[in-house]
Design brief:
single chain, alpha/beta, Rossmann fold, six-stranded mixed beta sheet, three-stranded antiparallel beta sheet, 26% strand, globular
């Protein structure tokens, strides 16, 4: 059983970022891998065996509600990173990890001019697409081992198959499972078509 954990899903879902968990869960199910999504609301919830965690984006008020508990979680979150449990953090979730030094060497003290636009960026041999709305001086996409931080909303995994496959492979590896391909060709073709439609639209918007 693969367990996908989402931190404070009622608070850190300002731009639908918790949808990344649904994308991962569906993809695992379509590959015949049993999985479940679990809400991480306390330090006790982090004691269970997790194969992935998501830290989404929340408003200032939302973070005020969970800050004390999140701070108490940080030592356990650091242990998960050391164990190689994959993580995706988005916008303010990414910022909190950078400020806590779980992501190291990143500038969290300076603000830049606010950017609010669709963004396409080069990621190795691939491209990554999402919506950027921030004045934080953080990289749009950052990797540290199996941990990924991004400033892109979306949810980003629904739009970016290469990034999705990378995380799926990491999740399966953390559970010592091989990642089989999608068994349903019709489903795979349908998903590829939908993703391409999104790219056609949002790439044009990113160029404006």
């Amino acid at each position: 059983m693969i367990r996908l954990g989402g931190l404070f899903p009622d608070h850190l879902n300002l731009n639908g970022d918790i949808g990344n968990l649904e994308v991962l869960s569906k993809q695992l199910s379509w590959r015949g891998i049993e999985n479940e999504i679990t809400a991480i609301q306390s330090t006790h919830d982090l004691d269970q065996e997790l194969n992935f965690i998501l830290i989404g984006h929340g408003s200032v008020a939302a973070w005020q509600d969970v800050d004390e508990t999140f701070s108490a979680m940080l030592p356990q979150i650091g242990v998960l990173k050391e164990k190689g449990v994959p993580c995706l953090s988005v916008s303010s979730g990414f910022e909190r990890l950078a400020k806590s030094s779980i992501f190291t060497g990143l500038d969290t003290g300076n603000r830049a001019e606010r950017v609010s636009k669709f963004e396409v960026l080069r990621d190795g041999d691939a491209e990554v697409l999402g919506y950027l709305n921030t004045d934080l001086n953080l990289p749009t996409l950052h990797r540290d081992g199996q941990w990924i931080g991004t400033m892109l909303h979306g949810p980003v995994l629904a739009k970016n198959p290469e990034l999705l496959d990378e995380l799926l492979a990491s999740i399966c590896a953390s559970a010592t499972l091989a990642m089989p391909p999608l068994a349903l060709k019709e489903k795979a073709d349908q998903l590829a078509g939908l993703v391409q439609e999104i790219w056609n639209l949002e790439r044009d918007l990113a160029g404006e």
